[in-house]
Amino acid sequence: MNTNSNTYTVVYTTIIVIIVAAILAFAAMSLNGRQVANMKAETIGQILKAAKIESGESNAEIINAYKSQIAEAYTVDLTGAKKGELPAEDATIFTTSQLKAQNYKIAGGESDATLPVYVFKNGTKVVPIYGAGLWGPVWGYVAVGTDGKIVGATFDHASETPGLGGKIKDDPAFSAQFDGKAFDFNDVVPFDIVKGGAPAGKVNAIDAITGATMTSKGLGEAVNAWARAYAPVLAAAPCCCEETQAEETTKTEE
Q1: Beta strand pairing status for 125-132 and 70-76?
Q2: Confidence band, pLDDT 50/70/90 cuts, at residue 32
Q3: What is the pTM of this model?
């Protein structure tokens, strides 16, 4: 065959493309299991971090910490009624893609929404949130204790700006603001992320990230949409809001 002909060039290029495509497909299939395992461990690590439960760094340590501390995991509908179980023996959880699907149902008030709840042996409940940031999806987990106060929170994102919106994940000081706060389902907004700073003493509000207005707004909308969806579950715990308000009233009277 004439190696300088157009036919040779087309045949040679086609063969190379087929070989490269086959190699890439094989590599993707071979690594898929590992990628899924890493994503699962990362998600469970976020759940544990929100609940302030210690775990190791390896996938096995994270999974084992979850299995040893989880009391039950199940799904509920928008009324708070249980729909199914999430078996602890194989650490079954909802992925971000599953949360995305449920986010559409929450927005539409669809009765067949299926929402995960993770309950640990110390009584802490962890629920997810999912929504839209400035450049892409944002999501996270909020842990609520038996007294109704928030134990902790973790957040993540797909493509928020580093040093600005990316702080929802990278700046521990932001998520730390949730600690000790609470959802107030009697308020117009159960939980407020306030541009310019939250009012002093307000139990259901924190400061927004300076310079990241749209990310903060998107995260706040996500937190509130999912908080309202979980209200039948989270409102079952004693609300510390009334206690805080009573204390403020007493101080005012004094």
Answers
A1: unpaired
A2: low
A3: 0.82
